[in-house]
Amino acid sequence: MEYLSLRLPVVVYIVCCSAVLIAYVSWVHSPVADEVGHLPAGCMVARHGATTLYKVNPPLVKWLAAVPVVCCAPKYDWNSYSDEAGARTEWVVGRAMIEANGSRSFAFFTFGRW
């Protein structure tokens, strides 16, 4: 019985440590290459319902990641966006979003991961 009473605190401790480490890693190592295109594409789906930015991947996961970001009211720069066939403007739009939001961009990428 003593073994069972010790197991719960140990499991809770391990889960809490894992959550802290995951939060730290997602903050420090953000963003990775693909996220620069995925996050603005998800924001476009969440705000406008358009799935044409980063159209080579399905929109559901991008939309789910972008919902907390859209709630933070980031600045967007859609000037370089194009929905022409074969256009891949997600990287330019992502770079413009980072430039428009400055240091807040890193928080947005972290919120998108969580």
Mean pLDDT: 88
Write down the domain tally.
Answer: 2
Element order: H for helix, E for strand: HHHHH
Radius of gyration: 18 Å
Portion in helices: 55-70%
**Beta-strand segment tally:** 0
Approximately how much beta-strand content do the residues carry?
Answer: under 5%
Low-confidence stretches at least 5 residues in length (pLDDT < 50)?
none
Task: State the major sheet.
Answer: none
Structural class: mainly alpha
Helical region count? Answer: 5
Instruction: Give the N-to-C terminal Cα separation.
Output: 37 Å
Shape: elongated
Please sum up the structure shown.
This protein has five helices and no strands. The protein has 114 residues and is mainly alpha-helical. The model has no long low-confidence stretch (mean pLDDT 88).
Structure overview:
This protein is mostly helical and 114 residues long. It folds into two domains: 1-30; 31-113, no CATH class. Helix content is 67%, strand content 0%. The protein has helices spanning 2-28, 35-48, 59-71, 90-101, 104-113. α2 packs across α3, α2 crosses α4 (90-101) and α3 (59-71) crosses α5. The N and C termini lie far apart (37 Å). The model has no long low-confidence stretch (mean pLDDT 88).
